[in-house]
Amino acid sequence: MREVYFIKQNKEKWLGIEQVIDGKIKKNPDDLSSLYINLINDLSFAQTYYPKSNTTVYLNHLSSQIFQKIYKTKRVEENRLVYFFKTEVPLLVYQYRRYLLYAFLFFVLFTSIGVLSAMYDKDFVNIILGESYVNETIENIKKNNAVGVYQSGTTWGTTIGIIFNNIQVGAKLYIYGIAGGVGTLFALLSNSVMLGSFQYFFYDYGALKQSARGIWLHGVFEIFAMVVEAMCGLILGASILFPRTFSRFNSFKKGFKDSFKIFLSTVPFTICAGIIEGYVTRHALKMPVILNLIIILGSLAIIGFYYFVYPSIVNKKTNKNIHDTIL
To answer: What are the transmembrane regions (predicted)?
Structure first.
């Protein structure tokens, strides 16, 4: 069958499924299951005969949306907040996983630019971090206390200030995505270049190990959350630039809804980062090195698992549950 005829034959059905997903048409669980089976058959046909076609991409996206709809309808009652973090966010992260990869690659690229800039231009760090901060840190390094800047102020006051600042940075990374993702990339560039030059600055003064023991206690949650927030901004931008079969407004509405949920999932990590920075980082060099490593590697394992590994596990489990329900 020619692809044009295949599309013409099933177009109305697919548009109807889009309306079900958008909530414009209500269906009971049995009808949803029937729609899903039909759609999977169409997807299998398209994958066989038009494997590199946009039709196949579209049907794959549509099928993922309808099975999430089924799962929400079929799922047993549970605490809404638990469901949000345990199932809803991981499924969305899996669906948009390529944007997490893009955000991570841009982060690595921009951080490398910061490192190279600081390496070849000795005044670059002063411009990025501020001369007073650099001079204060140099004095601290001479006193064998590279993370001395984190020891000023009260613990609770510092914590609150840091949390609000980090949430503000994350919100900019996300909301700036409304400019087609360009604003998000600019905000990510600014923060990543600062990080790269910041770390090279400590390396240049022979204090990289000391700084890492302190900075990455809170930095793992803070920086990883920043990458995920950039992912959300890219999703928002893509929903405007690439509406696919949706109207641009409906695509934006869906992109905003999905990306905002993922963005909200970063808030607990941002709060944890602020608490660690306010209460723990100031004691970084007094702690046994093994304790520093436990906190740093433990934080990396938790957030890395949640955004990179767990979404795939939830997706497979959900897919299996749906097929079992249908059969």
So the answer is: 99-120, 173-203, 215-242, 262-280, 289-309
